[in-house]
């Protein structure tokens, strides 16, 4: 048990310690990456990443209005009392970070129908909307291929098909000239529309490289993602996302993209279609294998293939990461590579973990310079 003054003393020492920690953090400008201590899952389940899906959205039908004439004791004509039908539900796409791809979507998305009206002026219940969760960064195209929606923020919604309105019951049609209408409306049919949904990964950093350069090894080393790693080309067939956590609570998403080869734009290898995932990356990180002869020629090929997909991609901030520093050929190739390019070169060994701390620091600096300031500007613009 502490006395009152003793407890104050402990509280003050805690506050002083916290202030010292805070001032120490403030003096070191760049946040350091937090390495997760939790073990990774060793489940080896194949994961199919579905990034494109064609769907048909059908809104719910409105409930029919009722025709009813109330008869009460001592009042045989208590009046037309048919209630209105309820509205059909809409089909709505909602962006959420709870799902990563479109594999859970069925090809027909249908909302529920509204309930019909009842006697005694009871209205039918309107159906709940069918809210379909899609990943953040989903692009919605109509049947002609025109982009009509872009769900790039958490919880943003797109109404894909509106439900039909409920029909009116015969009570609604009472007028001076028609006191006992025997008419009611049918509920309207819901809309039926076709869409093409496409996920464009919302990564901040995109890893671009030849097959076998070590992109997946690097992603696994710096995040909790577990892409497959193997010593043969085209191990990665679909993009993988990993998140680097920093001690200032910033989270930087990194996308491991399939490998590019000369002629990818002519559909060699896996083609360049997956580069649509790089379109949202604010920074591109070229990963080169230092153990191959003349790795700088790979850099030229990568830049050429990117330009074939979209010349705009080459305007983004770029970094060169030279991997496999642990192999003997790297010692010769690294200085030559540095001489051949004007881009900043960071040498690492993703497998051995060499220089990863340095790389994570540079990634954070580039992120702070480009992505964070862009986000702040866009949030200012939106006000
Ligand atoms: N010696 C050494 N080997 C590495 C290093 N990084 C990756 N490797 C090896 O290189 C091989 C390919 O690694 P991946 O990470 O699968 O390469 P990738 O770029 O993802 O390849 P794709 O998915 O086919 O495009 C694996 O055998 C890794 O163990 C490194 O720093 N040093
Ligand atoms: Mg890979």
From TrEMBL:
Obg domain mapped to chain residues: 47-202
Single GO MF descriptor: magnesium ion binding
Keywords for this protein: GTP-binding, Nucleotide-binding, Ribosome biogenesis
SUPFAM superfamilies given in the database record: Obg GTP-binding protein N-terminal domain (SSF82051), P-loop containing nucleoside triphosphate hydrolases (SSF52540)
Domain OBG-type G stretches: 203-368
GO BP annotation list: ribosome biogenesis
Database matches in Pfam families: GTP1_OBG, MMR_HSR1
GO cellular component: mitochondrion
PANTHER family linked to this entry: DEVELOPMENTALLY REGULATED GTP-BINDING PROTEIN-RELATED, MITOCHONDRIAL RIBOSOME-ASSOCIATED GTPASE 2
NCBIfam families according to UniProt: Obg_CgtA, PRK12299.1, small_GTP
HAMAP family assigned: GTPase_Obg (MF_01454)
Family as reported in the entry's similarity comment: Belongs to the TRAFAC class OBG-HflX-like GTPase superfamily. OBG GTPase family.
Name under which the protein is recorded: Mitochondrial ribosome-associated GTPase 2
Source organism (scientific name): Cryptotermes secundus
């Amino acid at each position: 048990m502490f006395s009152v003054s003793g407890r104050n003393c402990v509280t003050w020492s805690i506050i002083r310690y916290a202030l010292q920690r805070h001032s120490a953090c403030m003096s070191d400008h760049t946040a350091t990456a937090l390495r997760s201590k939790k073990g990774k899952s060793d489940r080896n389940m194949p994961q199919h990443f579905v990034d494109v899906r064609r769907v048909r959205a059908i809104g719910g039908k409105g409930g029919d209005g009722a025709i009813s004439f109330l008869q009460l004791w001592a009042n045989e004509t208590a009046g037309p009392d048919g209630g209105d039908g309820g509205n059909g539900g809409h089909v709505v796409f909602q962006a959420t970070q709870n799902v990563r791809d479109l594999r859970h979507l069925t090809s027909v998305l249908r909302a529920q129908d509204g309930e019909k009206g009842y006697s005694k002026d009871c209205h039918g219940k309107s159906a709940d909307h069918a809210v379909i969760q899609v990943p953040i960064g989903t692009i919605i195209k109509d049947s002609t291929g025109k982009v009509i929606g872009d769900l790039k923020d958490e919880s943003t919604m797109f109404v894909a098909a509106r439900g039909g309105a409920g029909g009116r019951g015969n009570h609604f049609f009472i007028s001076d000239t028609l006191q006992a209408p025997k008419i009611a409306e049918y509920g309207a049919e819901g809309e039926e529309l076709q869409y093409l949904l496409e996920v464009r990964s919302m990564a901040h950093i995109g890893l671009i490289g030849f097959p076998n350069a070590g992109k997946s090894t690097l992603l696994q080393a710096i995040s909790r993602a577990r892409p497959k790693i193997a010593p043969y080309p085209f191990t990665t067939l679909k993009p993988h996302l990993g998140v680097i956590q920093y001690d200032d609570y910033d989270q930087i998403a990194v996308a491991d993209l399939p490998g590019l080869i000369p002629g990818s734009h002519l559909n060699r290898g896996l083609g360049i279609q997956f580069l649509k995932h790089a379109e949202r990356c604010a920074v591109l990180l070229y990963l080169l294998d230092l153990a191959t002869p003349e790795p700088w020629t790979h850099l030229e090929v990568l830049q050429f293939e990117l330009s074939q997909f979209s010349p705009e991609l080459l305007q983004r901030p770029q970094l060169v990461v030279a991997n496999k520093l642990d192999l003997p050929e790297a010692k010769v190739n690294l200085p030559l590579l540095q001489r051949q390019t004007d881009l900043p070169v960071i040498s690492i060994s993703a497998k051995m973990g060499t220089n990863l701390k340095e790389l994570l620091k540079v990634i954070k600096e580039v992120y702070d310079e480009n992505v964070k300031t862009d986000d702040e500007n866009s949030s200012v613009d939106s006000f």
